[in-house]
From TrEMBL:
This is Phospholipase D-like domain-containing protein. It comes from Microbispora corallina. SUPFAM superfamilies: Phospholipase D/nuclease (SSF56024).
Amino acid sequence: MQAVYAHRWAVPQTVWRRLFQAASREIVILTYSSLFLAEDTGIIRLLAGRARQGVKVRILLGNPDSPEVAARGTEEGIGADVMAARVRNALTLYRPLAEVDGVEIRLHQTVLYNSIYRADDDLLVNVHAYATPAAQAPVIHLTTIQDEDSAAVYVTSLERVWTIGKALDGSQ
């Protein structure tokens, strides 16, 4: 384990940038919206740049029309409509990345137990807690090399959700 942050908002911006900048093979984002990243134009440019340099970028967001996204909004106390709107906003901000070769965006309809941000062997896992906004929940930084068993659980989960996700145009 590299680090534990008490809250997602406590993860320094430099950590997010270093995570994605260091990727040489793959970047994967699994979340409902990750609006905090989508609003960061520097991160969007960084993801586009990494894809242009041959790094595969996969982004997997919650389907804003799904009951899972609605339930999450209700559980967090912001309302189903607000959570769906956050996802739609993020989709609008991420959509230009879909035009970049090497970037794929899919939607999922799963109960999201953790948001997972992967760059090659490094993972930032936002550990969700019932009725707690993701920004308030802890984040653990794992590496598949040092934390092989723990990290493998999250990598497997991420890949399972990716497999059942649907491309933005509705195809799989």
